[in-house]
Amino acid sequence: MTCENYPEWDLTKPLPKLPVPDLMGTMETYLTIMSSVVSPEEFRRTEIMVEDFWKDNGSGQMLQQKLKQYAETKENWAYSWWMDDMYMKARLPLPINSSPGMVFPRQFFENRKQQLRYAARLISGILDYKTIIDAKALPVDRCRHKQKGQPLCMAQYYRLFNSYRVPGYPKDKLVTKETSRNDADSHHIIVACKNQFFVLDLLLNYQRLSEDDVFTQLERICDMADEGAETCQPVGVLTTSDRSTWAGARAEMMTDMTNRESLSALETCMFVLCLDKSIPISFNHQRSVDETSMNLRDDVSLSTQMLHGQGSKINSCNRWFDKTMQLEWNLSSNVENVIAAATDSIDRSVQTSASTRRFRLGRVDNIRANSPAALEWVQAMVAKNEASVSLNDAYCINIE
C-alpha cells in the first residue's frame, strides 16, 4: 500500500456547507439533460419555459433566493429532500431497486464447519471495525483529485451499525440511534438460516465472545434451523414487498406482543448475517463457459445472490432487507397472504456515481445521467447509428 502525501488541511474545522448552484448554471445543465430525453419539438417548448423561468424578476429568481435563505438554516440544504425523494418516499421493493450488494473474494467450503468458522471470523472482524467506529477513530477519507487531500464527510460510517429503515406510508422512516458501550441493544446480531431468524448475543458478562464461542453458537443455531425448517413461515420475504404493502403488514404484526418483540430484535441488531444454502452451477450465466466447465460459480451468480437471494426457493426468504434465540411470529391470515404475494413477486423479479462528500452530510449516490454523451454511447452500443465511441469516452461518462 502506498502512502499518500496530502497538502496540509486543518481537520479540526468543519467541512464547508453544500453550496447552492447559481440559477443560470442549473438551467443550462437542465436543458443539456433534457435534450437527450425529449423530442426536438418538446425541447423547443422546454427552452421557452426555462427562459421564462429564469428571467429577471421571474419565479426562478424568487425561488433561488428562497433556496439560499433555506440553505443558511441547514447543515446540508439538499439532504432531507434527497433522502425523502430518492429513498423514503420510493415505494418500490428494496431488492434490486435500492439495496446494494458486493461480492467478497471467493471462499471454498467443503463442509458446514468450514463455512461457520469463516462466519465466526467475519463476525469478529466486523466487531473490531465497529469498535473503531464507536470510538470515532476511523482515519478521515481524503480527496484524491481536485484539491487533493481535502477531508471528506465521514457521517455515513457512523450510521453503519445503528440505523434501520422502518416501512411506512406515505414514506419510510430512517431510525438512527446513538450507541454507547452500555447500550444492551447494540450487542446482538441476527443470524438468518433456512428462512428463520436467531438472536446471537455477542456480549456475555460484559465480555465479548471469542471467535471459538461465536463458532459454537453458530453451530447451535444451524442445528435449531434444521429442526424448524419444515414448519417455519418465510417472514423475511415480507421485506421484499413494495414498501406500502410491507408497511401495512408490519402494522398488523405489531398488534401482537410476540411479533413486537421479534421485530424489535431485528430492528435494533448491529447487522444480519445470512447463512445461505449452496447455489447450483446452473445459475451461472450462459456465457460463463470457463467457470461452469470448472464447476465454479461466476460473478453473475455471486452478485445476484447478494442482491436478492435468487428467489424464494433459494435464499430470498433468508434475508431481512430493512436492516444494511429464534424469533417467533404470530401471523394472521392476511399477513400470510402478503407473504405469499411477496414470494411470487420476488420470484418474478429475479449506474453512474456522484459525490458530495466534500461537504457536510455529503455522500456518494447514483445519478441518472441522461446526458447527450450517455445517449450517444447507448445508441452506439445498440447500433442505432454509426457513431463510434472510444473507451475513453465511455470511461468519462462513468466518472463524471
Condensed summary:
The chain is mostly helical and 400 residues long. Helices cover 41% and strands 9% of the residues. It is built from 13 helices and nine strands.
The Cα radius of gyration reads 25 Å
Beta-strand share of residues: 5-15%
Determine and state the CATH class of the largest domain. Alpha Beta
The assembly state of the depicted protein chains is single chain
* Number of structural units classed as domains: 3
**CATH homologous superfamily label of the largest domain:** Choline/Carnitine o-acyltransferase, domain 2
Distance between the termini: 26 Å
Domain Choline/carnitine acyltransferase: 18-328, 352-386
Keywords: Acyltransferase, Fatty acid metabolism, Lipid metabolism, Neurotransmitter biosynthesis, Transferase, Transport
GO cellular component, one term: cytoplasm
GO biological process, one term: fatty acid metabolic process
Task: Kindly describe this structure.
By secondary structure, this protein is mainly alpha-helical. It is built from 13 helices and 9 strands. It has helices at residues 23-34, 40-54, 59-72, 79-88, 112-134, 211-228, 243-253, 257-267, 289-293, 299-308, 333-349, 372-381, 391-399, and strands at 163-166, 173-176, 188-193, 196-201, 203-204, 207-208, 272-275, 352-355, 364-367. The strands form 4 sheets. Strands 4-3-7 form a 3-stranded mixed β-sheet, with helices on one face. It has a two-stranded antiparallel ribbon with strand order 1-2. The longest helix is centred in the first third of the chain and has 23 residues, at 112-134. The radius of gyration is 25 Å and the shape is globular. The model is unreliable at 384-400 (pLDDT under 50). One of its GO terms (molecular function) is choline O-acetyltransferase activity. Keywords: Acyltransferase, Fatty acid metabolism, Lipid metabolism, Neurotransmitter biosynthesis, Transferase, Transport. Belongs to the carnitine/choline acetyltransferase family.
